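Figure 3 (text version): structure tokens given as input.
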């Protein structure tokens, strides 16, 4: 008997959550075959089989928290594991009545998430499916979760329809696997074949379904996902563009008829993510004593420094030098001097954070998300740029995990990328501060008694006045301004 234990998770990481088991007790496994997947607050870790054999008892179930080197399962090796392949070889000859039922369950949704809504079924009852083929898509209040098939067979019964709410760990459907599934008519596979995408890049299943419903082909839709992958939002845009009325020549004037506005309206149910964004933003306004203070920063020296070293920086570190690393560093320095901006209120207590988990607000086709750069105060410029780049890519592709959006202590929101000149950002509870960046614009400034053009940016700090006084908020913003106008202060920790 061989023990399967939690591997080393990384520096300072002491525990993880069992996210998914890819095998069940009794399954034959090969050495180094993936058995399960663990999630830490920083990375996802795959656990390979240390030896070949048959998976015995699973000690740590999905959703459980385990420490480093904790026991996960046992593998039974030796003669007991050998007969399994032979039994599988005989399976096709078995009677159709030998089919086994496989439950399709709601996967792990993430920490503190207890329910989800079924947004799309990609298969219908009677369809043949392969192992790991996408069956359905669920929406939680933060992310979309795809449900893969736990095995090959026939989808015999769908227990929860589209639009229904399901709880974590609940059953979604029943799959008929084994010999009975092998006896399914080959015509089903032929029927399903045309639905497969002919392109090398696999489009989102929900996008495929909508294209089929709307009668659109892939060449009529511009994909915005990874490698041109077509997302559901892309199809919606294509449908809207196709339905837009074409320009017409002016018609002779006639008596106006009663307007039929209802015929020109479209009612779409809010996604769970959009509902959550709306609720959290309104809660922030209702709960916090929110106030915003403003300043402006001369970006000349940051832009000169970036221009001088950007090529060398990218050559050495493999990532572009952007503005976000400067702002992140400047905020980390300011938060050390004004720690209440990095704190939160818990009842009648103030919880001061002796670390900085920097939230970076990112706009995506489905709504605003805030991935978190953990321990940003301990990171270099290169490490910050790499992490922001990786998290931003995940956000746009809809691949952010729950862990990557939790635990932030302060947030930066860059409305300048959309052209915003001035705004008042809303707090991201339970945080007490958020910095708003804006468009860099050439403006006339007085420097040493002369009027010169300077690249200026307005900064806005929204803060919770219950915990942060005006003096602290202004001091924080001035420190950020000073660090950006003289970046050498960041290097010398001034």
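Below: residues designed for each position.
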């Amino acid at each position: 008997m061989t023990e399967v234990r939690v591997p080393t998770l990384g520096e300072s990481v002491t525990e993880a959550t069992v996210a998914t088991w890819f095998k069940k007790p009794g399954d034959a496994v090969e050495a180094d075959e993936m058995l399960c997947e663990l999630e830490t607050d920083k990375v996802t870790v795959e656990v390979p089989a240390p030896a070949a054999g048959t998976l015995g008892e699973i000690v740590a179930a999905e959703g459980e928290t385990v420490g480093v080197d904790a026991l996960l399962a046992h593998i039974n090796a030796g003669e007991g594991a050998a007969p399994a392949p032979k039994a599988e070889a005989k399976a096709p000859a078995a009677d159709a009545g030998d089919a086994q039922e496989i439950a399709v369950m709601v996967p792990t949704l993430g920490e503190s998430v207890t329910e989800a809504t079924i947004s799309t079924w990609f298969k219908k009852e009677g369809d043949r499916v392969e192992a790991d083929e996408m069956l359905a898509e669920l929406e939680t209040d933060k992310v979309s979760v795809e449900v893969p098939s736990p095995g090959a067979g026939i989808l015999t019964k769908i227990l929860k329809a589209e639009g229904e709410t399901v709880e974590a760990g609940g059953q979604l459907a029943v799959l008929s696997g084994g010999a009975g599934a092998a006896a399914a008519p080959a015509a089903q596979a032929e029927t399903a074949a045309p639905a497969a995408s002919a392109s090398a890049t696999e489009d989102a299943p929900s996008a495929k379904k909508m294209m089929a419903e709307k009668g659109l082909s892939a060449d009529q839709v511009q994909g915005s996902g990874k490698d041109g992958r077509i997302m559901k939002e892309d199809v919606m845009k294509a449908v809207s563009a196709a339905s837009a009325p074409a320009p017409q020549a002016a018609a002779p004037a006639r008596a106006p008829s009663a307007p039929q506005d209802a015929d020109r309206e479209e009612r779409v149910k809010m996604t769970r993510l959009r509902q959550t964004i709306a609720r959290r933003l309104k809660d922030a306004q209702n709960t916090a004593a929110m106030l915003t203070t403003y300043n402006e920063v001369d970006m000349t020296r940051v832009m000169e420094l970036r221009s001088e070293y950007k090529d060398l920086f990218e050559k050495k570190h493999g990532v572009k030098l952007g503005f976000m690393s400067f702002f992140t560093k400047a905020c980390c320095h300011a938060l050390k001097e004004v720690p209440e901006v990095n704190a939160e209120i818990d009842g009648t207590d103030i919880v001061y954070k002796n670390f900085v988990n920097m939230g970076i607000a990112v706009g995506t086709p489905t709504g605003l998300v805030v991935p978190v750069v953990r321990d940003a105060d301990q990171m270099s410029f290169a490490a910050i740029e790499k992490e922001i780049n990786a998290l931003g890519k995940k956000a746009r592709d809809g691949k952010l995990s729950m862990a990557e959006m939790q635990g932030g202590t302060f947030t930066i929101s860059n409305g300048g990328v959309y052209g915003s000149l001035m705004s008042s950002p809303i707090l991201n509870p339970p945080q007490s501060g958020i910095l708003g960046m804006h468009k860099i614009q050439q403006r006339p400034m007085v420097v040493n008694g002369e009027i010169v053009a300077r690249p200026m940016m307005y900064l806005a700090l929204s803060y919770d006045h219950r915990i942060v006084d005006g003096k602290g908020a202004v001091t924080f913003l001035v420190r950020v301004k000073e660090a950006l106008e003289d970046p050498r202060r960041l290097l010398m920790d001034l």
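The chain has a mean pLDDT of 80.
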